[in-house]
Amino acid sequence: MEYTVAMNGGDGPDSYTRNSKIQENSFDVTKSLLIGCIRDHLDIQKSCKVFRMADLGCSVGPNTFSCFHTQFPGFISLPEFQVFFNDTFSNDFNTLFNALPIDRLYMAVGVPGSFYGQLFPKESMNLIHSSFSCHWISQVPKEVLTKDSRAWNKGRISYVRSSIEVKQAFAAQFMSDFKAFIGARSAELAPGGLIFISIPCRSNESVLSILEPIDILGDAFTDMVKEGLVAEELLDSFNLPLYIPTPSEVIKLVSGDKHLNILKVEESFLKVKMSSAEDIMYGSSHLRAAMEGIINKHFGPDILMDDLFHRYCNKFTEFSARFKNFDKVGIVSVAIERVIM
């Protein structure tokens, strides 16, 4: 089943606009590397008359705007800057463009569509940026949802506490998707251009994977199944299209494209707090802003969303001992140039 992932639109209490501080903080920890790579590897004023940039997986803001304000403080008017904001067709582009900064230094364009395929003409883009987006895979592996498969993931919503076969299926899907992502970007990047990607990662046992606290949502679903509030077959056929790679997996896939060269790789860490009731509510609101659309699409409009996330908070408190030794989430950032052949 192919998923069309979109964060909650609008600017209401459950919107992504008001619940994306975690993603903003993740950008903040990678910002210095991005600025340094732009300074050291892009000759902006000599490259062309129109400097074209893209943000892939932009959602509805405001983080995507912060990104481009950070990159171009105080540049002269030439070349002209054009920014392409990309996300899925179901993304709330109205909210995105209504929130465009008045003092922006660029002209804005919306580009709906999957970033696992080519979005722009060949050799047309000077800077391609994607932050906290590529861990969303294009679809849940079919074998995970097939009853007679060794990888059937019955009763679980991710691979976190599942069999090795389930994890391998998700890993294979990520490898296929990310290879397609890199291939498309390789075709789109102009000579002398730069790709900058940041992805949540899990490098060792002391670093938390962002999927681990998310997986507890499955326990809340299980209780709702037991109480007859959710059909068991609906839970058995639901998995989140998420995979958290290791840095080595990302590097291997980028290195496999002969047209690209890795300039820099950096693993950074986002501080997290998961001890107090306030921390748990904060995390729950961010999770709801990201997951509500997928959940509604699969379980239907009758799913009791307030009840589900209330249960999630309670389950998180119950299982909080699992996370007591974790205080950071890993992020891998890769700066890539196109090889002139």
Automatic annotation (TrEMBL):
| Biological processes per GO annotation | methylation
- The question of whether Magnesium is a record keyword is answered with yes
One Pfam family, please name it. Methyltransf_7
Q: Which InterPro entries match?
A: MeTrfase_7, MeTrfase_capping, SAM-dependent_MTases_sf
- Xref: Gene3D superfamilies: Methyltransferase, alpha-helical capping domain, Vaccinia Virus protein VP39
**UniProt keywords, alphabetically:** Magnesium, Metal-binding, Methyltransferase, Transferase
Mind listing the GO molecular function terms for this protein? metal ion binding; methyltransferase activity
Keyword Metal-binding annotated: yes
Tell me the superkingdom of the source. Eukaryota
Question: Hey, which family's this protein in?
Answer: Belongs to the methyltransferase superfamily. Type-7 methyltransferase family.
Name the record gives this protein: S-adenosylmethionine-dependent methyltransferase
- What species does this protein belong to? Daucus carota subsp. sativus
Give the taxonomic lineage as stored in the record. Eukaryota, Viridiplantae, Streptophyta, Embryophyta, Tracheophyta
